[in-house]
Amino acid sequence: MWSGPRNISTAMMRSWENRPDTVVVDEPLYAAYLARTGIDHPGRAEVLASQPTEEAAAVAALAAPLPAGRTVHYAKHMSHHVSEEDLSWTLAFRNVLLVRDPAEVVASYVRSREACEPDDIGLLQQLRLWQFWSAHGVEPPVIDAADFLRSPEAHLRWLCAWLGIGFTDAMLSWPAGPRASDGVWAPHWYAAVLSSTGFEPWRPRQVELSAHDAAVAQACRPAYELLHARRLQP
C-alpha cells in the first residue's frame, strides 16, 4: 500500500493487522530514505537506528518467509521513501495506491513539521510509480481516502477479492492503543490513530493554507487529479 503522509495509511495498516492471517510492516524504507536524502524529520536518529539504512536490505526483508499461520504480508509504504533508480523490485508485489486531496494533506502535514515541499507529500512519486507499473502492463488499484471513508467495507471487500483472500469483519475495527509493529516515529505522527478503534466517518474539512503551502498543494494537484480519475469505485 503506497501512500503519502497524513492520509489514512496507519488506520489502513491497523485494519489489515487485525486479520488473524496477516503480518504488517510499518514504512520499511523510512530509514533508507532518511539516510539517502539527509533530510531532517522528527525522531530521525531513532528511525535510523531502528531499520536497515540500505534500501536493498529493507527490500530483501520484505521477501522473508512469514511466521507460521500467517499467509498475508501487508507493507505500509510512503511513496516518497522509495528510491526511483530501480523500481523493478516492486513488480514482485501486489501494489495499491492510497491518495488524498493535496490541500488536506499539506494542511495536516504542516501541523507536525514546519517545512513542506511538493516532494514531501508523496503524490508526485505516486504518479511516477503508477507510470512505471503501467509501462510494465500493470494498472494498480487507486484508492482515494475520501471515497474509502464513505464506504470502507465495500473497498476492503473489493481488495480482498482482488487479492484472492476472504474478507473478514475484523478489518473494520480494532483495539485502541499502540502496536509492537508501529514504527519508532509513532509518538510524532500517530496520535489520532492510537486512540482510534475504527475508520472515522468521512467529513468535509475547512482548509486554510499560507501562500507557500497553497503553492505546494497546487504543484501536486495535477498528479492527484490524474490518479483520482482512475480511483477504485466498488
TrEMBL record:
One term of GO molecular function: hydrolase activity
InterPro entries xref list: Class-IV_PLP-Dep_Aminotrnsfr, P-loop_NTPase
Keywords: Hydrolase
Top-level taxon: Bacteria
Gene Ontology terms describing biological process: carboxylic acid metabolic process
Key word Secreted present: no
Similarity comment text for this entry: Belongs to the class-IV pyridoxal-phosphate-dependent aminotransferase family.
Protein name: HAD family hydrolase
Lineage of the species this protein comes from: Bacteria, Bacillati, Actinomycetota, Actinomycetes, Propionibacteriales
